[in-house]
Each structure stands twice: as C-alpha cells, then as structure tokens.
Amino acid sequence: MSFTLFADARLALARDSLTGLSVGDALGSQFFVPGRQPADLLAGRLPPAPWEWTDDTEMACSVLAELVESGRIDRDRLALAFAERAEPYRGYGPGAVTILRLIRTGTPWPVAAASAFDGQGSCGNGAAMRVAPVGAYFADSTTRAAAQARASAEVTHAHPEGIAGAVAVAVAAALAARGRLDGDRPTAHRLLAGVATALDPATEVHRRVRRAADLLGHPLPRVVGVLGNGARVTAQDTVAFTLWVAATYLEDYPAAIRACVAAGGDVDTTAAIVGGIVAAFAGVGTPGGVPTDWLAAREPLPEWLTS
Ligand SMILES: [Mg+2]
C-alpha cells in the first residue's frame, strides 16, 4: 500500500526515535558509573537523575537537525555540524576525535573519513548509533532510508561494514515506524528479513543479521556469545545484536533497554540503537513506549536543537 507521508508526520516519527535513542544512550551510560549494577535496573530501580547523554545523542541531534532543515542529509553540512558541535567530554572514541578534528580544521570529509585506521576507513559503530531517526523519517521507503543512512554514514565511516551498520539500523527503524503507521507490529522474522534484503551481501554485518534471525527465541547469553554485544565497538560486533533485541522487544521499550543493560558491552551505544528503533514503533509516553519518568531523568537535549 502506498501513501503520502507529510513532513510533520515524518518529523514526529523521527523525534520519537531520537527520544528513544537519547534515553537509551543516557540510561545505558549510567552503567559505566562505578557502583551502578545492572541488577538494580532489572529489579526496577532506576539510577538517580540526571542521566547525561553521550556522543551517540549529540551526533543524532545533528542528524535530526538536518532533517528539520531540509528533509534530507546534506553530507557537507552534516560533516561540519558533527565537527563543530562535538563536545570532547561526551565519550567520543579516539578515531572519531581524529576525524572530527581534521574536518574542523579544513580537511574535506572524504579525505578525513578515508584516512582513518591506516586508510581502511572506520568500521566502528558510530554511524549506526546516530541513524535511527533517519529511518523513522523515511518510514514510507526503505530504499530512501537506506540511501540517506549511507549518506549520513559516509562522512565519518568509509569502511563498508561501518556503512552497512548504519543502513541496517535505518532500515529497521523505517520498518518499525511503518508498522506503527499501519497499526501492525512486524514480526521479528519479517523485520530482520527486511533488513537483510537491504544490505550488501558481502558484508559481515549482513551475515550476522541473517544469523540473528536464526537466534530468535534463544536466551540472551547465547545470542551475545554468537553476535557480540558491542564490546569490540565495531559495527560487526554491535548491529546484529541490537537488531535481535529490537526485533524481539519491539512493543516493549523498557524490556528492550533492560536486555541491552543485561548483555553488557558498549551499553550506551547498544541501548541508543535499540531505543531509536523501538521508539519508532512504540512511541513515547504510550503503553510499551519510552516511560515518561525515564524521559524526565534524561539530561535535556542540546539547546541548539530545541530552541
Ligand atoms: Mg556514547
């Protein structure tokens, strides 16, 4: 069924996705604070507010600002926005710091992105962690979601796996948002199959997304053992795991984030990715959506986005 999705509706979906992403990031990062135990969250006890968001949210806010501004990703403008808005204490990885510094000091983004990791380009999870709102915005076309995700990734991640990670997350968010518009929860198998179709079959991300589909219904520790949990901070080690969680808990945001925390690894990033996809389907302040008390505990988003 084809339909027209007006700009306001697109932005509402993208904003819900960003809310889910930022709350997941901020809550996930709490478990890197000494003394915080995942068992507390699993028992229903929340860490004390405020929960500060990290690089995942800061970059996702720049992505959303692009969509607000022009309804698409302009790579030159996005690269500069990433570079100029990066606050160093937000937990950027060393590779990202280098690329953003090069862009900030005048190196064209294609050169900066290609120079990372001895000319291989970054296959880190940074392009995936910020992209879910792009998918929600293009809920009517997984083809456009994939193309715009690729554009948003390329400015920092030149490696095919880094790009595939972003495409996978955006397509998952597009299918989730489409399911919300249709009032029809995509089954976990359908969601993962839809993502796999959009990916370059030569990538490890594709192989692991296919593997994630085989692991639906399996216990979390087994899934982490096969797919990873982001501990290696690569797209390969992060994205398929997050898609397994999002597909499994698409209608239950708190359960999805608890699964990320229970799994350990790069929890702010896995919870950001999962939160961005699940909130595109489940919403904010709705049954199964982002809980309002969780949202209230999250540090406010940057003023340059909200003012
Ligand atoms: Mg982070």
List the defining traits of the structure above.
mainly alpha, 307 residues, binds magnesium ion, globular, ADP-ribosylglycohydrolase fold, 66% helix
What report would you give on this structure?
Pfam families: ADP_ribosyl_GH. This is ADP-ribosylglycohydrolase. There is one protein chain. The N and C termini lie far apart (37 Å). The protein has one domain (7-306): ADP-ribosylation/Crystallin J1 (ADP-ribosylglycohydrolase fold). The chain has 307 residues and is an all-alpha fold. The protein contains 18 helices and no strands. It is globular, with a radius of gyration of 17 Å. Helix content is 66%, strand content 0%. It binds magnesium ion. The site of magnesium ion (MG) has 6 residues, from α3 and α16.
